[in-house]
TrEMBL record:
Organism: Aliivibrio fischeri SR5
Annotated heme c 1 binding sites: C32, C35, H36, M82
Signal peptide: 1-18
Database matches in InterPro entries: Cyt_c-like_dom, Cyt_c-like_dom_sf, Cytochrome_c4-like, Cytochrome_c_Oxidase_Subunit
Protein name: Cytochrome c4
Keywords, sorted A to Z: Electron transport, Heme, Iron, Metal-binding, Periplasm, Signal, Transport
Ranges where the Cytochrome c domain occurs: 20-105, 114-205
Predominant location: periplasm
A GO MF term: iron ion binding
Binding-site residues, heme c 2: C135, C138, H139, M182
GO cellular component terms listed in the entry, alphabetical order: periplasmic space
Length: 205
């Protein structure tokens, strides 16, 4: 019993150690502000808002940016700027930064009225004839995703950034999606589909 109690204590301690520190993350976030804004909401629409994003998702992306640089794009996610920024980060740095940005509120965004009918139909129902799965299945009705499943929050995101990522998934230039799900869906999307969905998800909140 004593051994069991010791093991359980150690496991509990490891669980505590494995958590990111929000305050430490704030102190480490200064270099992130140039692209992602002071509190994770970028004014440059080609960069994502990372405030309010799931910590687990942020951790995954940072680790894969680093892996992309280490393997020269053979694994992970290679982006010239972010891969370079991620290279010197330790595991603790990644957890701290992810915890910090996840704790912040994502800025509100809007959906242009003209894309609502087509965007809503494609987001909620997909297109069975073309084999396009509904976005709502993974990202939820309000675009909040799910932390446990690893699906990111896309509500409130910049249309320019979403469009760029859908195009990269479609061309397979980005290939770090789980089970190639996003690549399978994106390759069936037209340019018009991508433009519509990119604008639609901003105001889902």
């Amino acid at each position: 019993m004593k051994k069991l109690a010791l093991i359980l204590t150690l496991l509990a301690s490891c669980s505590t150690w494995a958590q990111g520190d929000i305050e430490a993350g704030k102190q480490k976030s200064a270099t992130c502000a140039a692209c992602h804004g002071q509190e994770g909401n970028s004014t440059l629409t080609q960069y994502p808002n990372i405030a309010g994003q799931h910590a687990g998702y942020l951790e995954k992306q940072l680790k894969e940016f680093k892996l992309g640089m280490e393997t020269q794009g053979k694994q992970g996610r290679l982006e010239p700027v972010m891969s370079g920024m991620a290279m010197p980060l330790t595991e603790q740095d990644i957890m701290d930064l992810s915890a910090y940005f996840a704790s912040l509120p994502m800025a509100d965004n809007t959906t242009p009225e003209e894309v609502v009918p087509e965007g809503k139909a494609l987001y909620l129902a997909g297109d069975m004839e073309r084999g396009i799965t509904a976005c709502v299945a993974c990202h939820g009705p309000r675009g909040n995703g799910t932390s446990l499943s690893g699906f990111p929050k896309i509500s409130g995101q910049h249309a320019d950034y979403v469009k760029a990522q859908l195009e990269k998934f479609r061309s397979a230039d980005r290939a770090n999606d789980m089970n190639a799900m996003m690549r399978d869906i994106a390759k069936k999307l037209t340019d018009e589909d991508i433009d519509t969905l990119s604008k639609y998800v901003g105001g889902l909140h």
